[in-house]
Structure formats: structure tokens, C-alpha cells
Design a protein that fits this description.
The chain is mostly helical and 243 residues long. It has twelve helices and three strands; from the N terminus they run H-E-H-H-E-E-H-H-H-H-H-H-H-H-H. The chain has a three-stranded antiparallel beta sheet with strand order 1-3-2. Strand 2 and strand 3 form a beta hairpin. The longest helix has 25 residues.
């Protein structure tokens, strides 16, 4: 089905927020934004209302709008929810997915080293999100998926910061991202519920520690200097799982 103007506006503005083209705290001017996207006020306003529902845009009492902040308190709250949701998703995944589905998810990172060798950092970045998205989908709990989908934009912003906050990631950065999933992949291959739970906890913990470390050593003004063009537009389902 063809997408509506408001739907297209939603996707494009969301992508701008997720890849930091529109930074946390930035004021949003509907007229300027509409002109840059070649769209009228109505689809822009409808898109912003949808983004506000996801918590990515905030309407102030004075009717001004800005991109939601991404501070340490918010990140702590997000990771508290992520930890519990990811642990539940992992358990449900092992009990609900078929052997073929488990093998498919476990094998997603098989191409990871080839991406590293080729310097294809965006392909590796996307593999990360595909892995977590499929795991949640195959948990086959509709309400868990709703919670997950509502938070994906926030976690994409966090993942973007930790992976691209210092510019194009190095080979070591890419290797760390790949190897950070090894324990989860092995637990899926062996169908080990306890091992997957332990690996999920460690994965969330290490992700949290990385972003807190970056936010306490890097000013947001420096993040504005990131070369976002090297990434291309965020995919339609960008951020559908945490890093």
C-alpha cells in the first residue's frame, strides 16, 4: 500500500532523530522542518504527534517542541526496563522458537567477520538490531513486542552514540560489537536457558556501562560534529531492538 504523507514524514523525522541529525534537546520548528522535507504543516504535525507518543519528541507547556533529551537519568531508566524485557524475551524465545528459527537467529552473526574485514560498519550495526528484533519477535508475546517497539527509537539513539560517537568505528569497535554477542549466540545454539539469561544480563550491563562512560567523557556539542552522512538514512525499522 502507498504510504501517506504523514507516514513518510514520520519515517524521515524519526530517522533524523535516531541518527542524531536532530540532536537531543534541539528545538523543532514545524515550518522549517516542513520546508526541508518538502511537506506541508499537516503531515509534519501528525508525524510529530506520533513521535511524541514514542517519547522521541516533547511538547512543552508553551507549545514549543523539542527532541527528547538523552541524559543519564533517562538512560538508567531505559536500561532498567531493557534488562527485564530482554531476559523475558530470551526465555520465551528458547521455549517458543522452532529449532530452525533458533539456528537462523544464532547464525545471523556468521557474516560478521566478513563485514569487519570489508570495513562494512553499517552492515554489522544492522546485524545487531536484526538479531535482537528477531529474538523478540520469536518470543511470540504480542504485549512484550509492543513494549519493545515503543522503546526501539530510544535504544537506536543510544546504540548510534556508542558506535558512531567518535566518528566511523574502528576495527576494534566492530570486533567488540561482534564478540559482545558470542555468549548469547552460544547459549542459543546449546538451548541453554540459564546460560542465555546470564549472557543477556552481561550484554545489557556492558552496553549500559559503555554509554555511561561515553556520556561522562564526551560533550554533546562534540557529538554534533559526527559525519552522519557516512551512515545513510536509518532503516524503516531502525532501533527495533537494543544494541
Amino acid at each position: 500500500f502507498p504510504k501517506t504523507q504523514s507516514g513518510l514524514a514520520f519515517e524521515r523525522i524519526r530517522a533524523m532523530i535516531l541518527d542524531w541529525s536532530l540532536q537531543p534537546g534541539a528545538t523543532i520548528d514545524e515550518k522549517t522542518l516542513g520546508a526541508s522535507l518538502g511537506m506541508g504543516r499537516t503531515p509534519i504535525r501528525e508525524a510529530l504527534l506520533r513521535l511524541a507518543e514514542q517519547g522521541l519528541v516533547v511538547f512543552a507547556p508553551n507549545k514549543s517542541m523539542h527532541v527528547a533529551e538523552l541524559g543519564l537519568d533517562a538512560i538508567r531508566d531505559l536500561f532498567e526496563i531493557r534488562l527485564h524485557n530482554d531476559r523475558l524475551a530470551s526465555r520465551l524465545f528458547l521455549s517458543s522458537a522452532t529449532p530452525d528459527e533458533k539456528a537462523d537467529v544464532a547464525g545471523l552473526f556468521d557474516a560478521g567477520q566478513a563485514h569487519i574485514d570489508a570495513g562494512e560498519h553499517r552492515a554489522l550495526f544492522d546485524l545487531d538490531f536484526t538479531f535482537h528484533t528477531r529474538l523478540v519477535a520469536l518470543a511470540r508475546n504480542d504485549f512484550l513486542k509492543i513494549y519493545h517497539d515503543n522503546l526501539t527509537g530510544h535504544f537506536f539513539r543510544i546504540a548510534f552514540l556508542t558506535f558512531y560517537g567518535n566518528g566511523a568505528p574502528t576495527r576494534d569497535d566492530m570486533t567488540r560489537l561482534l564478540r559482545g554477542h558470542d555468549a548469547m549466540v552460544e547459549a542459543i545454539r546449546t538451548d541453554d536457558v540459564q546460560a542465555l539469561d546470564t549472557a543477556t544480563i552481561e550484554h545489557c550491563k556492558s552496553s549500559y556501562e559503555r554509554v555511561v562512560s561515553m556520556l561522562t567523557t564526551t560533550r554533546f556539542s562534540e557529538i554534533s560534529e559526527m559525519d552522519v552522512d557516512l551512515l545513510g538514512p536509518a532503516p524503516d525499522d531502525a532501533g527495533e531492538a537494543c544494541q
